Amino acid sequence: MKTLDRKRLGWRRQLMFGVHEPVISLSVRGVVRISLALGALLAMACQGDNAPQDAPTGRSAVEPTLAIPSARELLEAPVAEVQPPAPRPVPATSGLGRLAYIGDGDLWVKDIDSGAEHRLTTTGDVVLPRWSASGDWLLYQRDLPGQVSQAWLIKHDGTLERQLEAEVDKALQWTPDDIAWSPFDDVVAFVSDADSLVIESADGTTGRTLLPPMANAGLPAGRSNLRWSPDGEWIAFREHTGPPRSARIRAVRVDTGDVKELVSLTASQVDCVDLRGWSGDSAFVLFSAQTCSASLRADGLALLSVPLFASDPLLPSGEELAQGPVTLFHGDFVAPAPDSSVIAIADGGGRETWTSKSVSLLDAATGAMKTLTAPDTAAFSPGWSPDRTKLVYVAAPDIGRVGGGEPARLGSNQRRIWVMRGDGGGQTPVTSDDAYRDEYPVWTLDGSQILFARLDSGNQASVWIVNSRGGSPTKIADVSTPVASFAMPWFGYYGHVDWKYLYDFWPGQTAP
């Protein structure tokens, strides 16, 4: 198996768009395992056919290649104990970054260090801002009443605004799961109206079709649910085909267009499959599968994983698809540790976020799991510190299965931002103001600060920053949506507010 040396290539645009350069091949050896929930699926990973550039003293630069077992051969392996990832160094940074936020339906950008801010749009119909990797570009949605939502791009200084097009002179209909930034370049991947998978530079000057239109693709067939691997080398996606109906998870390699089929399901097993992301080491794709029932999905499904480099697709039974830690489908309920197979999750079924939710560790390589928070606490929205030694999360007393109303509002108002060690020790609140409900915490790049969202008693939403050891938070901005198209009630969806509709944080870059 050959992998790209990202430090040397920097994921240059020439590589993505078809002008190939010589690359350094790295020998990769490791353990590849697949977990269907708590059942561990142990396998040995493939390793490269070329040696590393620098072999350790006294060790051969080339080792024998190991055969990769099939996914079905991995189902009976023992479960190891989950361990938090090892610490890693945090590089020096050049600042605290920028906040892109929605104010009265328009897009604003604020530099957190200087406090300078400026307005980028004046249409009053903007939601869902998303930063590119460099912080130079923003992707956002225009939510036009009575029309399909549109995808737009704009530079952070307000220049070069353009509409993303599915075809020439035809606007791309916005579906959030069908558009995704590269983790390293100002390149966006999206699914066209014809179900082609396309990558395109932010300025629109270069682009490439990774996968052509699907053959015999009738409703409800199509591609969707795009997820870049953290190393930027692959894009995983969902395919539905039919008739007869089937669902697949596949991954395409960005530089070559090579495709791997990872999971294959027929209508006799399940009708729908959802991609949930990747492990932080880019070795495992996370997914859930079910019959197409909105009600079942709302109460959460088992979180499963499949290795990228298994020798054949996983063909799980319906029973295997239901075995495992149940998580809701909110984006902040699954948090892979960087460069690791360990994932922090908000574990617990039931759509109500004020009860039966705990922060747990799940190892995608072994299926091992460990609960970190107490059963009398409803905890969710975990996030790893940059050095991987701590977790930030949201917690409040568990108020039981109330359906909503004043008990749910009062219970949700007790939410505070907490920090703990990766093994669950040292659980400490970093916010404590009873006038606010605190949610959606994100670390700054150096780990010294935590950015988070607040709702006050008047339902006003705002973004704040606080020292990761606690102290007095500082408000960065009030946020609000276009009233005609998107409301911001305290209830959200059973207590979960989807904050990504209101703002996105770019943490900056490492210092030169």
How would the blueprint of this fold be written?
Blueprint: H1 6-9, H2 13-16, E1 31-33, E2 42-44, E3 98-103, E4 106-111, E5 117-119, E6 126-131, E7 137-142, E8 150-155, E9 162-163, E10 165-167, E11 170-171, E12 179-181, E13 187-191, E14 197-201, E15 207-211, E16 222-228, E17 234-241, E18 246-253, E19 259-266, E20 272-278, E21 284-290, H3 294-298, E22 301-302, E23 304-307, H4 318-321, E24 326-327, E25 334-336, E26 342-347, E27 358-363, E28 369-371, E29 377-384, E30 390-397, H5 405-412, E31 416-421, E32 428-429, E33 436-443, E34 449-456, E35 461-467, E36 474-479, E37 503-506
Antiparallel strand pairs: 1-2, 3-4, 3-37, 4-5, 6-7, 7-8, 8-9, 10-11, 12-13, 13-14, 14-15, 16-17, 17-18, 18-19, 20-21, 21-23, 22-24, 25-26, 26-27, 27-28, 29-30, 30-31, 31-32, 33-34, 34-35, 35-36
Number of helices in the DSSP assignment: 5
Strand order of the largest sheet: 5-4-3-37
**Distance linking N and C termini:** 32 Å
- At the fourth level of CATH, the homologous superfamily is Prolyl oligopeptidase, N-terminal domain
Decide which structural class fits the backbone. mainly beta
Give a short account of the largest sheet.
4 strands, antiparallel
Q: What is the number of independent domains?
A: 1
Instruction: Give the CATH topology.
Output: Methylamine Dehydrogenase, Chain H
Helix content: under 10%
How does this model look, in words?
With 512 residues, this protein is mostly beta strands. It has a single domain (6-56, 69-506), classed as Methylamine Dehydrogenase, Chain H. The protein is 5% helix and 38% strand. The protein contains five helices and 37 strands. Strands 5-4-3-37 form a four-stranded antiparallel sheet, with no helix packed on it. The chain has a four-stranded antiparallel sheet with strand order 6-7-8-9, with no helix packed on it. The radius of gyration is 22 Å and the shape is globular.
